[in-house]
Design goal:
about 350 residues, about 40% helix, TIM Barrel
């Protein structure tokens, strides 16, 4: 149904308009109790064999919604009806910001990919907290992905991450430190060994002062070379954070079916979807192998079929996340993945 009716309709609109339209329609539809009940029943797959114990948390199934889809916590209740085991909100910053000018979200239909240069557009951490205060969906783990404001210089970036961490702490189950988006100027410089070690160590010190510390994860770029990945492993070991999310979007444009002219017209941005699948899996496998399977990894990047999800898990991921794949495959993708994992 999605590919025959809904997808062609949504693709009549720009990517960003289609995203907002999808969320509005979903929320309106699911506001009707009987529709919500039937929709959830059709999407959910409850089976104890799907449960995962990771980072000291119990996930009802290993398939999550990646950050970026619901930056401000406006639709996580509706999205929880789709059968996700966990939902990651954000990236959120201390102060509200508009992000980059539109258009800033583009579909690469031939490649089943998406280029975005959103730029951490969000309403600020306090707006997210106000929505989370209304209560979390039962049985769904909620993560908070935190970043820095564009106007904050890198030498003061730690203050932004610390602020978001402190404000969000009572309301999420785990944290993700995002220093790997290509759409905030100089942000990826924070992935360098010295600033990243300082940042994660500071957050861990704040974390361990709490009566019940929460898992802190680091989201990394797929564009890191093996030497940089080795540094990441050392940083994880030194800071004792809970794990890694591999990977964010890529700045690479290699191997695309979309013409060079179209790519140049779109301009800068992070590429997600099928084009990043292979590199994401390579990064997961490298980190898992080098850590002798001890590093906990959430695999994300190019998952659109059950086989893609299995590939990430077999490479060493404990959990997986999806986003771009749903644009092309539809919401039933989550259930199909879980059904395949049971087999």
């Amino acid at each position: 149904m999605y590919k025959i009716f809904i997808k062609p309709f949504l693709f009549l609109f720009s990517a960003e308009k289609a995203h907002h339209l999808t969320i509005r329609l979903l929320k309106i539809t699911l506001s009707i109790p009987i529709v919500n009940f039937l929709f959830k029943k059709s999407m959910e797959l409850k089976d104890d064999r799907l449960k995962r114990e990771v980072f000291g948390l119990t996930f009802q199934n290993p398939v999550g919604l990646a950050a970026g889809f619901d930056k401000d916590g406006k639709s996580y209740h509706a999205m929880s009806s789709m059968g996700f085991g966990f939902i990651e909100l954000g990236t959120v910053t201390p102060q509200p910001q508009d992000g980059n000018p539109q258009p800033r979200l583009f579909r690469l239909k031939k490649d089943e990919g998406i280029i975005n240069r959103m730029g951490f557009n969000n309403e600020g951490v306090h707006a997210l907290v106000e929505r989370l205060k209304k209560g979390k969906p039962e049985g769904v783990i909620i993560g908070g992905n935190i970043g820095k404001n564009k106007v904050t210089p890198n030498e003061r970036a730690a203050e932004d991450y610390a602020y978001c961490f402190e404000v969000l702490f009572p309301h999420v189950d785990y944290f993700v430190v995002n220093v790997s988006s290509p759409n905030t100027p100089n942000l990826r410089a924070l992935q360098d060994r010295e600033p990243l070690t300082k940042l994660l160590t500071m957050l861990q010190e704040m974390n361990h002062k709490k009566s019940a510390p929460k898992p802190i994860l680091l989201k990394i770029a797929p564009d890191l070379n093996n030497s940089q990945l080795d540094d990441i492993l050392e940083i994880v070991k030194d800071s004792k954070i809970a794990g890694i999310i591999a990977t964010n979007t890529t700045i690479s444009r290699e191997g695309l079916k979309t013409t060079k002219q179209q790519i140049e017209k779109i301009g800068n941005g992070g590429l997600s979807g099928k084009p990043v699948k292979q590199r994401s899996t390579e990064v997961i496998r490298y980190l898992s192998t080098k850590s002798n399977g001890e590093l906990k990894i959430i695999g994300v990047g190019g998952i659109s079929t059950p086989e893609d999800a299995k590939e990430k898990l077999e490479a060493g991921a404990s959990l997986v996340q999806v986003y771009s794949g749903m644009v092309y495959e539809g919401p039933y993708m989550v259930k199909r993945i879980n059904q395949a994992l049971l087999k």
